[in-house]
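Students often ask what a holo structure prediction actually looks like on paper. The answer is less mysterious than it sounds. You provide the chain, you provide the ligand, and the output is a string of discrete structure tokens encoding the 3D arrangement of the protein together with coproporphyrinogen I.
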Amino acid sequence: MNDTFLKACRGQKTDYTPIWIMRQAGRYLPEYQKVRGNVTFLELCKTPELCVEVTLQPIDILKVDAAILFSDILIPLEAMGTPLEFHEGRGPVFPEPIKSQTDLDKLIIPDPEEHTGFVMETIKLLRKELKVPLIGFSGAPFTCATYLIEGGSSKVFWETKKMMYTAPDLFHNMMRKITDTTTLYLKAQAKAGAQALQIFDSWAGILAPRDFKTFALPYVKEIIRDLKDTGLPIIYFANNGATLLELSESSGADVLGLDWRINIGDAAQRVGDVALQGNLDPFSLLLPKNELKKRIAAILDDAKDVKGHIFNLGHGIHQFTPPEQAIAAVEYVHELSRK
Ligand code: 1CP
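The corresponding structure tokens follow.
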């Protein structure tokens, strides 16, 4: 069992810097495309045998030090009782977005085993196969709320901010329901065998620090507090969150994920004993290999005083990335950090 990733999460010394890649299973891999060619994305997410197959692909191909469960942050939201569709080229769509307390009242707090048993089954199957630790995950409540309120992806988040500012009680009621759902969902993943848990706050960066503190952070804190008794390391990734770093640290997470917009050495100076994960710009994978290697060396050097560094990209790998560039990046991180 390769436990380098788990050691780094706990701030312990490792022989080399572990690496995994956000969205490491996905469309940039021809092997994933092949599986995905026969089923829709949601069918894939709900078929444990196929989820296992695509989760394992990047472990074999890239030689990363951790696996991440193949699923999506929107799966537990669908389980709350709101229909979810994925439209080719447009991404997720919730055709019945939440606009009122009446809409919200229709949503349930689902029993994770009963409504998302396929996720727990995937985790159990994966643990039999894997020689690296398995990361389970969810969205953070704020990020989940944006999808339910906007009815899908957004660029300006008009509806979300309108609700926050003009109907704060409704917004908080909704966060309450998503938080309770998320806590149960992550606890069930821990019980099924996940060995670390990452909370993705992909849209936290659209918030002013004051609003982050009022509308988003308390719910993340609560989830992390309630997960403490699982004993698993918790990674909190607030994308575009350089201005929220100290607040993010107060979440109580063991590891903070960093996007590429901040120097990891500067981030380390601003926080205490927390481990850091990141933070190569995903587009750096397009650099010629010698330049890519220099970028990786620079990040490893910037992170030399970090107590527990897990190498990753600053956000998900882009779908048009040549897989051989990702393979090279993993090799470089291993080779350079061993010296
Ligand atoms: O067409 C396809 O095959 C679907 C593409 C795809 C994939 C491969 C989607 C649609 N989701 C996923 C898998 C996925 N999503 C994983 C597991 C794979 C891995 O990491 O190896 C994870 C952890 C996620 C998490 C996720 N889904 C996030 C948080 C991370 C991030 O990128 O910020 C978000 C925001 C989503 C929503 C989502 N899922 C898919 C799309 C197109 C979107 C919308 C993104 C947006 O609004 O811009």
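The pocket of coproporphyrinogen I is lined by residues 22-27, 36, 41, 68, 70-74, 91-92, 137, 153, 200, 202, 239, 316 (CB under 6 Å).
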